[in-house]
Amino acid sequence: MTEIPYKIYLEENEMPRAWYNLRADMVNKPAPLLDPATGKPVTLEQLSAIFCSELAAQELNNTDAYIEIPQEVFEFYRMYRPSPLVRAYCLEEKLGTPAHIYYKFEGNNTSGSHKLNSAIAQAYAAKKQGLKGVTTETGAGQWGTALAMACSYLKLDCRVYMVKVSYEQKPFRREVMRTYGASVTPSPSETTEVGRKILAEHPGTGGSLGCAISEAVEAAVTSDGYRYVLGSVLNQVLLHQSIIGLETQAALQKYDIVPDIIIGCAGGGSNLGGLISPFMRDKIKGKADYRIIAVEPASCPSLTRGRYAYDFCDTGKVTPLAKMYTLGCDFIPFASHAGGLRYHGMSSILSQLYDDGLMEAVSVKQTDVFAAAVEFARVEGLLPAPESSHAIKIAIDEALKCKETGEAKNIVFGLTGTGYFDMYAYESFNNGTMTDYIPTDEELEAGFAALPKI
Amino acid sequence: MTEIPYKIYLEENEMPRAWYNLRADMVNKPAPLLDPATGKPVTLEQLSAIFCSELAAQELNNTDAYIEIPQEVFEFYRMYRPSPLVRAYCLEEKLGTPAHIYYKFEGNNTSGSHKLNSAIAQAYAAKKQGLKGVTTETGAGQWGTALAMACSYLKLDCRVYMVKVSYEQKPFRREVMRTYGASVTPSPSETTEVGRKILAEHPGTGGSLGCAISEAVEAAVTSDGYRYVLGSVLNQVLLHQSIIGLETQAALQKYDIVPDIIIGCAGGGSNLGGLISPFMRDKIKGKADYRIIAVEPASCPSLTRGRYAYDFCDTGKVTPLAKMYTLGCDFIPFASHAGGLRYHGMSSILSQLYDDGLMEAVSVKQTDVFAAAVEFARVEGLLPAPESSHAIKIAIDEALKCKETGEAKNIVFGLTGTGYFDMYAYESFNNGTMTDYIPTDEELEAGFAALPKI
Hints:
Oligomer: homodimer
Mean pLDDT of chain A: 94
Distance between the termini of chain A: 57 Å
CATH topology of the largest domain in chain A: Rossmann fold
Helix content of chain A: 40-55%
């Protein structure tokens, strides 16, 4: 049997040339976006006023299984893809497990995460449409960084509204974006009507993602030649992120490896949705029976404790309604260190798959997550992002179960990015001052009570 | 002709299995280390009191051209090596140059730089000798991070003395080291005699690299089962870093690429010495005639404006004397943002090669370096470390000369690491507040006047 290398790389000619659109093969399609004013599905025309035309079309496309990756996007992918599928030999040895652990590492680019896969696709759509630029919001900053980088490459203007508290507490993230030429505005700001209104009502507020979304959308629709872009949750984003899963499957197939368990962290769902898409296709078609596990923070448990209902995608309630597992758009997640997982809802695609019983979900506490992150870092030589470490925690748990049973299962997980900009979090863990939070049933009920009545 | 991919990766079976020891092929050997008390060459026994035995032997080995990489070190290398040789297609296009630009990227590991190549080799030597642990100093923190990571992997104790001002100003670097299980002590400290002495004489001092070296050496020689390790300058370090050059040469040969110019940044010389070693071998043997360029900061110009003389390796004057291009061990380099290049001297091997006319050297201002770094980052998708960006600056300059002459030269440079922990520097550049400093002749003369009389 061929020895499996530490890192399985695809050759350039083995790289996927089309994204895979899981919706085409789903038996129960994800529910459509609804116009909150009419309760009717949003039209392509409505979406195209906010999003780039091509992306709006992708958002509504439930039929084409494969959508060709534009040549320009493929050229960009070639700069940092294919990403390696790493065999975690050292972690296996440390755990003393017979399991084989693999992780798809998406942190090898300056954005530091998988977000770049969609950022370049969205920026390219804007460029092709002849737009001047795009607007977006960012919280922790991974998406903003990725988008700034993609826009810089394509010479597009990039206007990022960054939650003010993050703008001040994460100056490094802000400077990476500025280095790539983006303008970064702390939100709420005086540059938009909604921003001025919020500032008048809440002087000195540190802002929120909901507010930043509202500002970014307003900035897009009131500026000539701009559209709004978003880094997760949307169908189009999961489509672009399918590159992760396609490469993972191709790499496994090179060595005849059949995964038993596939694990990913889940916030809005962009990483998990991308990673599992081709495996879920095989599962839906009855060709394979993988266990697929979404891992979410115990402090923001949209799948494990949320409701499957129509809700706004943002706290400011300016977006269409999406049917998803949600904690309610008024739910304010605990200020955990996994900023990328602090989202009240979950991608409609993943929500439907979960509701159909095709996927499991578990939630984990952040102190347990960081313990797993440190254990992983010490042997594997990678400092993982807090978000990614949710998947690490469950991968380790599953590997330890294999140790008990003696099973040599193949465990595959997504390692979405690096933790270089999360050292305050590691410091807090190292100092023993990190805390956990699990919302009470009463808190969750309050969130559900505020769900829109559809 | 085969198209050259964006990234040239070696297969695992193409990885070098031995380090290359350039000293064996140098016509004029580097001058030996001297005992400052006697003026005589230091013996293996003397060196072994401070360094691990195997490393002391490597330090003095001027005869063996190839030294096998221990299997355990090779296994560790496999976790993050081979590193890619990247064709900078996007930068070439941006510059409109006919030149072909390649960079060897050493930042794909948590230490974020090439330092890990020697850290694991040194930690392994300590482990093999049955030691409990090692001590070292760190300024900017790249070396300390790499050593902490290597020691964690081998379950060795790692005690890092970190210059106090860096300890306070770079909490993230400190936390990465702690995450890998190292103890990090701000220097000067109360834990050593020399530290207490300095604190008594200079209450409230922010420390210096010289002081941290003195503390780390004292901690090693006064603790049972410990030795001191160092991340640059030494012959053994250049030996370990030859892995960079060997991989680069193998990758170029796969596509029949003959470099015209090879460029590296130079502080103590570990990266440059490693990168150029096999190319310098071919040059010495008359098989090729590459231009080899060392790039140093204008604020710390040891090669371009220094003296070739015996000097202490540290400011505290506790080390043996090394013959090198030096600004004098009392020279305090300007607080530039390229902490890894703020060293008063240069590796004895590189100093001899430079003195023999086998290598060029240029110095560059930091604002020009950061302009090049930003230009590079925006098209190549990598945020380079300030140190690495010195090489980028000259690579761009050479590529622009090719644009004028129409020559399609092959330019190869070393990209030693990422700039994730240098965002204050980028912020200062982005804000237009970054300054330059070029020492006056008088300042340099003062440094030379303090050189030891040998």
